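Run log, item B.
One chain of 414 residues. Sequence copied directly from the ordering sheet:
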Amino acid sequence: MASLISSPCCSSSVKRINAALSIPKLPSVRISAPKKIPTKEKIQGLTPGNKITMENNVSVTTLQEQNISLRSDSFATLEMYAILEAIADRVEMHHNIGEQRDNWNTLLLNSLNMITLTATTMAGVAATGAVNQGGSGLALNLTSTLLFSAATGMLVLMNKIQPSQLVEEQRNATRLFKQLQSQIETQLALGCPTKDDVKDAMEKVLALDKAYPLPLLGAMLEKFPKTLSPTVWWPRNSQNRARKQSKTEHNGWTEDLEMEMRDIVDVIKRKDKEDYERLGNIVLKTNKVLAVAGPLLTGIAAISSAHGGSWAATIAAMAGALATTVNTFEHGGQVGMVFEMYRNCAGFFSLVEETIESTLNESDVEKRENGELLELKLGLQLGRSLSQVKELAEKARYSQIEGGTIDEFASKIH
């Protein structure tokens, strides 16, 4: 009996074990089942209008637009860094070429003076008549003639290119490219630049390239213009773009500040810019006279020395001595450099004037550069504190009312 009772239990336990062993096969059939079961969140999303679905679509679209904007800003940043590298290369090029042309000026000046003085000495010895035996006088005359002729040709070339003026051009270009480099670095440090910033930087680089060309042949600036024209190293047709800045009431502009800026512009026009143009034209006329006088005197010396005779040799010696003096005054005194300096200063005041006028011509104050920031920059450029800028504007206003002229220049550092 015991065995009969125990046998069913054993069989049932075996069945249970088999059932337990077959359980792992079940999930393999229903793996995708949870995807069909709606959750509470999805059931709530099935409200009329499907608001959550629409909000999700809008948020996805917004994120896509933001990603596109971020990619565009990132690409603009890369472009700005590329421009920055090009500017750094230009700084180095202008610096090196400036040093090279400074060496030209020194070497050519010393060589010309040595040639002219040697020829003058030979002509003076020939004029004394002490070496007329054995054809020595003829040899001295011929030698001095050749030297004076060589000096004439070299002087014509040197006066044409004006090495001291070329050096000043490269100095100004180096300084202005470094200034632009600093502006771009500051812009990159403050935030992500835009496409407009990239376009503005490109225009500034190209304007500087045009104002201060590197090659001599075909692109060299006119060294003897009819009158002084201020150098323009900024894009003239560029619009006044609004810059990223902290917002203040009316963007820092008031009627008093606008009037103050107009008064400052009037002083710059009537005093600083006009004075530099006047002085530049005086230096230009002086340089023209010296550029003609030097080769003319060496040419006279060459012709006189070729004719021979005591009087001709005396004239050659005198003309040679005068040519050396003129050449030293022109190139040793760097008259061309002084002219370029005046032209660059006149260009600086033209830039200040144009910047203020273009800003004031913008009717929307929110699109202008911040008024307080512009006033601060103007004070730094003119070497004045903010209180001194206001005092200068008041003096200019009173002089206009009284019908006189202000006896003070706007800039204290130019």
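Observations after the first pass:
- The two ends are 128 Å apart (CA to CA).
- Residues 1-61 have pLDDT under 50 and may be disordered.
Flagged for discussion on Thursday.
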